Amino acid sequence: MTSAQGPSELRVAIAGFGAIGGVLATRLDQGMPGLRLVAVSARDPDKARARMALAAPVPVLPLAELCTHADVVVECAPAAVFREVAQPTIEAGGILMPASVGKLLEHDDLIARAEATGARIIVPTGALLGLDAVRAAAEGKIDSVTMVTRKPPRGLAGAPYLDQNGITLEGLSAPRKVFEGSAREGARGFPANVNVAAALSLAGIGPDRTRLEIWADPAVVRNTHRIVVEADSARFEMTIENVPSDENPRTGKITALSIIAALRSLTATLKVGT
Prior knowledge:
The protein is α/β, with parallel strands linked by helices. The chain has two domains: 10-127 and 254-267, NAD(P)-binding Rossmann-like Domain (Rossmann fold, 3-Layer(aba) Sandwich); 131-243, Dihydrodipicolinate Reductase, domain 2. It has helices at residues 19-30, 45-50, 82-91, 101-106, 109-117, 131-138, 160-164, 183-189, 195-203, 253-267, and strands at 10-15, 35-41, 72-75, 95-98, 120-121, 142-151, 176-182, 211-216, 223-231, 235-242. The strands form two sheets. It has a five-stranded parallel beta sheet, sandwiched between helices. Strands 7-8-6-9-10 form a five-stranded mixed beta sheet. Mean pLDDT is 92; it is low at 2-7.
């Protein structure tokens, strides 16, 4: 990576210019101390340029080039291109902030590579509350972590697991459990839906021991996650109901805000939380 403009300024590039990336770009454009937006990438560069209503427009670059212009690369692109964003950033020794946390479980070799190159991988809290408590409990002994996710059926549409198992949610009139297994299996089968489970597993007892249930529930209007943690230091339960993004029902509005908070923490004088 090339050097930053100043000792207290970090240059930020955004991989993906959809429901999350658009919000991040707007907030960075409005001004965040110590952070400056320098580039974005998008599946349709011409469309991205046309909708870039920023006071200070930035170039739309190929995914692999973002890390050559920035100190921090925020990944909020389609999960299928995760490695195209992550690997160059890690090889360049930069900071990777992934929204597609579930893909990190499939490409966990990148974690070891980051240690070798001096890169950092910072996983935002995303749509999950209580991540600090899970991380603290993991310093002791955690016996079990269970997460139950309920989403409106349209929020699960297109998930590979549903297609592979011939599960249709059209016309669903009652709650239906569509998956039960490990967080690793869930992240593979629902790459656009359970990044929260992946983050939870990385903070706690790992993706193979973290248990996950996914329900399609026509009665819910918000993406709901209930987490139960049994540890030697505490037993706690957490429930969060996230408002889906208007642009992408698979994503909660709080996800973009969480990434903004994580970016702020990189340069903040006062950092609250683990």
